[in-house]
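Lab channel / #folding
Pinned by the channel admin:
"Please post every new chain as: sequence first, then the structure tokens as a reply. Keep commentary short and put observations after the output so the thread stays searchable."

First post following the new format, from NK:
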Amino acid sequence: MGHVASAHPHQSQIIGFLLFFFFSFGLKAQPFDPFSAGNTTPTYAQIVGFYDKLHQQYPTITRWETLGPSDAGFPLRVFLIVPPLQEPLGKELSNLSPIRVLINNGIHPGEPEGINASMRLAQNVLTGRLKWKNGERFSLAIVPVYNIGGSLNRSAHSRANQNGPAEYGFRGNSKNLDLNRDFIKQDSREAQSLTRFIAYFKPQLFFDTHTSNGADYPATLTYIETQWNKMNSQRGTWMHESLTPAILRKIPSKYGTVPYVNTLQETPDSGITCFVEGPRFATGFTSVLDIPGYTIETHMLKPFEDRVNATYAFLEAGIQALLDQRDSIPSPHQLRPKQHFLFNWTVDYRKKEELKFTGYEAEMIPSELSGAPRLRYNRSKTWTQKISNYAYAHATDSDLVPSGFVIPVAWNEVLERIVPLAQALDSSSVKWIQKDTVMLGKMARIVDFQTGKSPYEGHYLHSKISVQWNIQTQSVRAGDCFIKCTASTARLLMETLHPRANDSYFAWGFFDPILQQKEYFSDYVFEDLAVAWLKEHPSLKSEFEAEKLKHPEWVKDGSGALWWVYSHSSYYEKTHKLYPVLFVD
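Reply from TO:
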């Protein structure tokens, strides 16, 4: 494997920005009461003040920690209700309960139900209003507001299709990134801070709180259960067959809880499909770590207070259902080298279930603006029937897990993202090459791909990627990084470093420089070299003659013939489209 060592230049990471920002920007505000909020969600200053006060009141069983920086310039914070800790979080987790839950709020601050509901939940737990059955040595972590910049950007009009609250935050963060598309690519400081915490904290249950978009229907509460068979583990099966049914039984029927209404066509009667979230999404990222996750989506047109209550009900039910089953939670999935990794999941239209659903009658009426037909839901007319629910996903790709990957030190943007996560999952997985050496493995040359015509979350995303693999020995230099595929890291490494994966770092464009050729030829110079090269390589000349028969246009324009010879000769640069990550056998 070559000469390796555990020390590395990327080990240190920024812990947070200066705390005086809290005061220099005037973050003092009137206290906020989550029990009488009505149509109001707190400002960022009120959120900070609320958790400051709770920590002051219960200093022995709470922690109010900084996870790292945010793009807004304020530290990203987490509030923990925990058994007493002897050391700061992040340095010592051994005193935490093995049962851990993480709630993430305000990823889209215009969808703030979880912010209110989590404040209420924390206060109820600490005051004794809510007592968890089987909750001994149980740790609850709450990110009060993840998108701080979006929370500070308040208005009453950015969510035109939403009924309240009176004011709310904005979807984009301070860099106008959608943080629920950033978990794996980590362009934001928020994603870098939170993903590393998740990898260290390793919760058994994760919640991400949202408000729905889309169709109108009577239900107040919908949810996305992370695509359980995508987890390909006992935990995924346990989540779907045991945990989710237990949660749903505990939620009051008045909320009409149904799976997220991701319609096949415009209206729910056409049927719904599961939402297959890749690791760019919050619950898609946690599922890569084999953490069951739920996205809570309350209906946008219901009164805000009802949506807060519904979110609270799901959180309480979910935590209690987990605690009820604390002794039967399966261990995390163990994916190891030489096993098949399934990836690039999509809705499986070969399987469907029947879902009893209540909806509003949909009708087409003339638009007052244009006169064209427009959709309207008639809330005075409801229907109840079974609709098709395509609740399953299937993988469209697979590959064997290698023993590890070598990433050249030059690719710092990739190393800055993947190394801290791999270390958080398994501290022994990352080694830095100490001396120049040679390793055997396989490397991919990019054959074809498609690129979006418009930027998506700051990138021109690649898709439909095809590669050609070659087994070869590769020179590895001192300073390059070897990351071992262990039971804890293998899934994350395959999702990020396999070039064909939909959310790989190649797909996001972090390896784009390899796609640009650096050296070329002049036709009049290379013509003579090409003829000489073919004479010196008879078998190649035979291939060329056969290829020439397929291209009669070469007679009028010889550039194609010259390119063919050039690309098959030693003059062609070997690194063009060569994916630089070595898959070590």
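NK: Confidence is low (pLDDT under 50) at residues 1-26.
TO: also worth noting, The longest helix spans residues 304-324.
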